[in-house]
Amino acid sequence: MVQSQGWVRRYFKAFCKGFFVAVPVAVTFLDRVACVARVEGASMQPSLNPGGSQSSDVVLLNHWKVRNFEVQRGDIVSLVSPKNPEQKIIKRVIALEGDIVKTMGHKNRYVKVPRGHIWVEGDHHGHSFDSNSFGPVSLGLLHAHATHILWPPKRWQKLESVLPPERLLVQSEEDC
């Protein structure tokens, strides 16, 4: 009987040691490196959630890639909503700082994206709350870069960083 209690005690100690090492490592990984998120809504159709409300895509969000605010035109990013800090939104980067973008429904027809900001839009125009509603977004609101669709299995794929052909820039910083 005493021997059996010793085994339980050793097992419990080993479990606690492993638990108290694994939890901080897992939390750090999810906070700093990558995590998964379910995409809701129609704003990114057809790239994400092409089936509408019947299904939700689950994407891999890479925190590490945006740690130095390194984003490119066409990247799909997760960011803190400028209107509701409790909410994260997922949009495509259309323009970078210094670019001049032709807007779609914004109060100004053309906008020059200020330093330290990006212009983001959903792929499903008219069904997206994006920069056309709230203007350029501070790079400080970037949360992660969506790199892959993980679920459903039939949609497993790498997300490409492409600008929709109708969203080409008027002028980019590189043109100047």
Labels describing this entry:
mitochondrion inner membrane; eight-stranded antiparallel sheet; Umud Fragment, subunit A; transmembrane; hydrolase; transmembrane helix; EC 3.4.21.-; 176 residues; alpha+beta
- Categorize the overall geometry: elongated
- Individual helix count: 2
The CATH architecture category equals: Ribbon
CATH topology: Umud Fragment, subunit A
Structural class: alpha+beta
Tell me the total number of β-strands: 10
The pLDDT mean sits at 84
Strand content: 25-35%
Ranges with pLDDT <50 over ≥5 residues?
A: none
Q: What is the CATH class name?
A: Mainly Beta
CATH superfamily: Umud Fragment, subunit A
SSE order in H/E notation? HEEEEEEEHEEE
**Residue share in helix:** 10-25%
**Euclidean distance between termini CA atoms:** 82 Å
**Could you give a short account of the major beta sheet?**
8 strands, antiparallel
Q: What number of structural domains do the residues give?
A: 1
Oligomer: single chain
Q: What is Rg?
A: 21 Å
Membrane topology: Single-pass membrane protein
Domain Peptidase S26: 15-104
Function: Catalyzes the removal of transit peptides required for the targeting of proteins from the mitochondrial matrix, across the inner membrane, into the inter-membrane space. Known to process the nuclear encoded protein DIABLO.
Family: Belongs to the peptidase S26 family. IMP2 subfamily.
